[in-house]
User: Fold this.
Amino acid sequence: MKIVKVLGTGCANCQNTVKLINEVAQAKGCEIRLEKVEDLQQIMSYGVMSTPGVVIDGKVVHAGGIPARSKVEGWL
Amino acid sequence: MNSITDTGQTSRHAPWGWLVLGCIAWIAAYASLVPFADIAIAVLGLTRETHPGEAVHFFFYDTPKVLLLLTGIVFLMGVVHTFVSPERTRAMLAGKRLGIGNVLAASLGIVTPFCSCSAVPLFIGFLSAGVPLGVTFSFLISAPMVNEVALALLFGMFGWKVAGLYLALGLGVAIVAGLVIGRLGMERHLEDWVRAMQATQSADYEGETLHWAGRIDAGVAHVKDIVGKVWPYILAGIGVGAAIHGYVPQDFMASIMGKDAPWWSVPAAVLIGVPMYSNAAGIIPVVEALIGKGAALGTVLAFMMSVIALSLPEMIILRKVLKVPLIATFAGVVALGILVVGYVFNAVL
Assistant:
């Protein structure tokens, strides 16, 4: 099981990213645990400057905008 | 979107053919703006000699023109953004001195992708990488104010001279305000946890490298995102503009916002702009209508800069990382800069 974290302060783009990842995970039947990190200090601790960012198993894989669907499919 | 499912970007050729077709269609559409508006009012049974006819003609000419310009420039910027990530900008600014650093930061603010909801992470990210506070502020002021949407709209409605002046003066305000804040040495007015952060070295996120197919995709995505979001504002703005255009008497604004208006009209315009929170797209059509009715360009541009650069919501977000004296200084310095711009514009033009 993959642990996926979406880093973002709660703007529309972050919410859409969460939704997209959920959709793709369901479509692929892939089990993930999705967390939303909204605390600024925690976000900063990943070194991400432009939100939303995506962290999979502790590694930053994306930052700055909603990821493309194909990219999300590649991660899961 | 399209049905392309492969993710390997090297395996796909860039859609140059579509890009060329798109350019031709764009130019053809831009060349037929006036005939389009003429036909539109003819179909509605109106003529330009009447008030409603003039208002409707304005609407049908301006709307497609502004949307076309916006689409073109936003697409270009979407492609440019794939070359300049915030991470790269930060690396270029780290350790730069005041002065040259401020100029560089303000210029990079134009081309670096920026969304107001990541203003705070960006702010901290810059500081923690060793970008000086004053330089960071130059970036933070320039990025929202001198953006592609504002420039595209100004260019569409007033021509390249006004767009160029706005670009130069916006950069000027960002550079000088950042310099002043840097000189004042206000680092102690950062929130404590932010200062603690400065010492830690953050992990570097390696942005992926894109090929041209990916860059063009990014441009298209940017257009969908921005134009999809702002078109209702533009319609509303041009609607208001059209109403003023057709009905309000020619010199209605001249006594309040015109060249001969009292000296306080510029500060008043800035003050009115602060609580208003709109993006460039929503405000510029109104601006055009105001100028059409005799308002002075400097006063109106000061109003516009104030609406975009000094917004109450942004300051509330910044309060998470800045103490009140620093926010007050930031707002004060930027407001002062905008005032100068307003007076200079009014005096020169």
Notes: The interface with chain B takes residues 8-11, 13-14, 40-41, 43-51, 53, 60, 63-65, 68, 70-71, 73-74 of chain A (CB under 8 Å). The CA atoms of residues 56 and 70 of chain A lie 16 Å apart. The radius of gyration of chain A is 11 Å. Chain A has a mean pLDDT of 79.
